[in-house]
Amino acid sequence: MRRIAPILVLLLAACAQQGDGRQVVASSGRTATDVTGTAPPVTVTAPTDPTDPYEATNRRVLDFNFAVDDVAIRPAAVFYRNSVGNWTRTRIRNVLNNLNEPAVAANSLLQGRPLESAQTVLRFVFNSTAGLGGMFDLAQIGGPPRLERDFGQTLHAWGLPDGPYLMVPVLGPSNPRELTGSVVNGFMNPLSYVIPFGANIGRGAVGGLDTREQNIETLDEIRNGSLDSYARLRSLWQQHRNAELGRTSANSIEVLDDPGAN
């Protein structure tokens, strides 16, 4: 149930992690010890995007998420970065990704991609054995590459529409389809029923913390360098998710575009 972990209180945990923990926005170059600032408040009386009819409420939720992040999540991510070396963080990230592979395989099958499902099963077997429990990703030496498949994508493949954009407390950016997919995806992984409940909670927390650590500078840059950080985050999440759904090319994402400047 990695994708609904409490540590994902802020935004790009949903973006970066449709599971892989990658940075999806160019860094501003600030160090991890910089103090996050806040952009001037933006007053909205009507939705600025037709896909976001609940914008006024969503903005208030974002303010709450930012407040929680400032108090708890960002400091924890900075501590994690400063106390755990990059090599060790990479091994942890690889293990977490490996534990999610059964859910990826199941979603590939549900999306009518049996060859991709078989590829992911082989990848899980290789990385779990020769990769020492997933600590080492054998794709770097010719093993099966990692795929990104989740139940939100499955629902999209089945024709379920997006629905309105939502800023969810704790979970961050979403919409009704993706929120449903996030919940169901956590129950699809058979390993979740084998691993003790406490270990599952810990797995989700560490995964969210790792994602937040990778995006310390990127979120700082969005908050400090945007005229409207809400609009910029909404645009980033929508672009990133559209790329994952195959609607656009990942290379076409304008991650530094600031809608508030228009």
Automatic annotation (TrEMBL):
It holds the Pfam family MlaA. Keywords: Lipoprotein, Signal. The keyword Signal applies. The keyword Lipoprotein applies. Residues 31-52 have a biased composition (Low complexity). It comes from the Bacteria. Residues 29-52 are annotated as: Disordered. Residues 1-18 form the signal peptide. PANTHER family: INTERMEMBRANE PHOSPHOLIPID TRANSPORT SYSTEM LIPOPROTEIN MLAA, LIPOPROTEIN VACJ-RELATED. Belongs to the MlaA family. This is VacJ family lipoprotein. It comes from Belnapia arida.
